[in-house]
Amino acid sequence: RGIRLVKTQAEISMLRHAASVNEQALAAAGGAIRIGGNWSAMVDAFRQTLTRNAAKPAGERGMLFGAGPDGSFVLDHDYVAGKRFASGDAVVLDAISVWRLYYADMARTAVVGEPSSRQLRIFKAVREVLEEAEQKLRTGVHTRSIEELAAKSLASRGLEPRLATLVCHPIGLNVFDYGSREAVTGGWTLESDTVMNFEVFYRDPEAGGLHLEDSVCVRPDRIERLSTLSRELMILQIGRAHV
After folding, report:
1. What pLDDT is attached to residue 243?
2. Which residues of 180-201 are buried (b: 16+ CB within 10 A; e: fewer)?
3. 27-68 tens-digit pLDDT
4. In this structure, what is the dihedral angle of CA atoms 151, 156, 159, 160, given to the nearest 10 degrees?
């Protein structure tokens, strides 16, 4: 498992393609959200796009989902599945799929209608913290230091780190493709050609969940982001669905 942390160039190409397919499916899911509509239309659009590209969703649905303030805290899928999108909802689009045995994992955040000032402020912080952390992802860096830096960066922006998931995880033949049990909680030292995610997921009791992550390939002096989808907040100015 430790050897698998460093990817061959052929594996990196496959992970790059998997990320591209996952990106297309996530964009389709965002486009299916309607005020008053059920979340299942969003997930259906995600899954159908994957199928057309010879990929499949990971897990039961292939997408972690939250809508509205309580949706970012509730883990009961049946409860969340019964909800309908409302104006002002923050929608977590955390998409996980598999193409030719290799995993893709990325997350974006959408707001239905006009985002609140609080949502805008928190999302700005989430994006800045993610991009600051990614600038530190280099060969020889320990991932625990990245997570600690991100927590301090959130706190400096007036946000509570305990409300956030701030975690590095390698990705490959598993979505959490750790090289050892110890690395799950203690982190690990990055090597060149490791493919990994650093995710920033903030759960606010008023604004809802706001989440960003991408897979990146670590190089000695830079990172390569495997997806090209914009990291801007997805603001869904769309009509009411027929329900």
Report:
1. 35
2. eeebeeebbebeebbbbbbbbb
3. 999 999 888 888 888 888 999 999 999 999 997 656 666 666
4. 50
* Alpha-carbon separation of residue 121 from 124, 132, 133, 239 (angstroms): 5, 16, 18, 25
Give counts: helices (H), strands (E), the chain: 7, 10
The chain-wide mean pLDDT, for the chain, equals 90
**Using CA atoms, how far apart are residues 2 and 179, in angstroms rounded to an integer?**
4
DSSP assignments along 192-240, one per residue = TTBEEEEEEEEEETTTEEEEEB-EEEE-SS-EEES-----S-EEE--PB
pTM: 0.91
- Do residues 118 and 126 lie in contact, with contact meaning Cβ atoms separated by under 8 Å? no
How many residues are present in the chain? 243
Distance CA 139, CA 193 (A): 9
Bridging pattern class, strands 234-236 and 102-112: parallel
Instruction: Report the alpha-carbon distance of residue 40 to residue 62 in Å, rounded.
Output: 12
> What is the largest distance, in Å, between two alpha-carbon atoms of the chain?
53
User: Does the pLDDT value for residue 231 go beyond 70?
Assistant: yes
Only one residue has tokens 């002096």, namely 221
φ, ψ at 114 (rounded to 5°): -80, 125
The alpha carbon torsion through 11, 15, 18, 20 (nearest 10 deg) reads -130
Amino acid at residue number 111: V
